[in-house]
C-alpha cells in the first residue's frame, strides 16, 4: 500500500480523539484553551486542539472531508505544481491550517478563562480551499442536496456563512477557525505556486471559472 500523509494524519487524529471521548481529563489536556496558553505557557495546545474532537460525528465529518480532498491534494495537485517539494508543502498546509486558524481566537479570548475549542476544522478547511483554488470547478456534493455545486460557488457560500456566523458567535462551532483556515489554505497555496512554481493560480482560477 502506498504511503499516504492524509491517512497518517487521520490515524493520529483518531488515536487521540477516540480515547478522549470517554476520558474527560485527556480531552481537557488536549483542548485549544487560549487562557491556559497565555497564562500557563501551554503552547502545545495550539496544535493539540486539532487532534481532539467533541464526539464521533464531529470526528467522522472532519476526517471524511479531509480524506475526500486530501488524497487528491497530496497525490496529484501538489505534486503537479511542486514536484519533490509536494510532501513538505502539504504538511505545512495542514499544520499551518491548525495554527493559523486559531490565532484570531487566541488573541480574542486569551484572557477569558471559559473559552475552549477543539477540532481539525481549520486545517481541513485549509486543505479544501487549497483544492478549490487549484481546481475551482470540481463538483462538491453537500448532505441532503442531490446535485453537485461547483467548488468555487461552495467556497463563496462557505466563507460568507462562516464570517456571518462568527460575527454572531452562533453556537459552539469554531466558525472563525473555518474562515481563517480557508483563507490560509488559499493564501499559502497561491504564494507557494507563485514563488516556487511560477504559476499564477488566481489567473488560472479566473480562466477556469469564466
In short:
It is built from ten helices and two strands, in the order H-H-H-H-H-H-H-E-E-H-H-H. It has 210 residues and is mostly helical.
Account of the 3D structure:
- The protein is mainly α.
- It has a single domain (5-209), classed as Rhomboid-like fold (Up-down Bundle).
- Helices cover 71% and strands 2% of the residues.
- It contains 10 helices and 2 strands, in the order H-H-H-H-H-H-H-E-E-H-H-H.
- The chain has helices spanning 5-21, 24-30, 34-40, 45-48, 56-82, 86-109, 121-134, 151-168, 175-197, 201-209; strands spanning 139-140, 149-150.
- It has a two-stranded antiparallel ribbon with strand order 1-2.
- Strand 1 (139-140) and strand 2 form a beta hairpin.
- Helix 3 (34-40) packs across helix 6 (86-109).
- The longest helix is centred in the first third of the chain and has 27 residues, at 56-82.
- It is globular, with a radius of gyration of 17 Å.
- The chain starts with a helix and ends with a helix.
- The mean pLDDT is 91.
